[in-house]
Design a protein that fits this description.
By secondary structure, this protein is mainly alpha-helical. The chain is 78% helix and 0% strand. The mean pLDDT is 88.
Length: 128
């Protein structure tokens, strides 16, 4: 029923010429806010495990697709390795420039502080 309601939300917004992705996004927010609390405990566990598994499978499919496309395009396109290297370096520095100052700012008002090891984990985990 949830999948059918999600599809109907998407289809109706497309019919009206609106963004289907945005309608699904807000539909998900509304469902998470109101429907989760009306489920029984076993249903909460089952839905959480089911949707977590579906999310991981979808993410894996996206990464496999990207990997296959990148591997197949090696011979057909010219890859500028200097640009790739500079992009990776820029991403590493930009990520560090956001994670460390923002966690320091958060630590000013938090009772339980984010320690340096957790900041490093947050920095590295966004670079995958």
């Amino acid at each position: 029923a949830i999948l059918l309601a999600s599809y109907l939300t998407f289809a109706f917004s497309q019919l009206l010429g609106l963004s289907g992705i945005m309608s699904l996004f807000f539909f998900g927010i509304v469902l998470a806010q109101y429907n989760y609390y009306s489920l029984s405990e076993p249903s909460k566990v089952a839905s959480k495990v089911t949707f977590s598994t579906l999310a991981k499978m979808a993410e894996s499919c996206v990464f496999v697709y990207l990997g296959v496309v990148a591997a197949l395009s090696l011979g057909r396109f010219h890859w500028h390795l200097g640009l790739v290297f500079c992009s990776i370096v820029a991403i590493v520095f930009a990520r560090a420039a956001h994670v460390f100052p923002l966690t320091a700012l958060l630590n000013l008002s938090r009772e339980r502080k984010i320690d340096r090891n957790m900041q490093l984990v947050m920095w590295i985990s966004g670079l995958r």
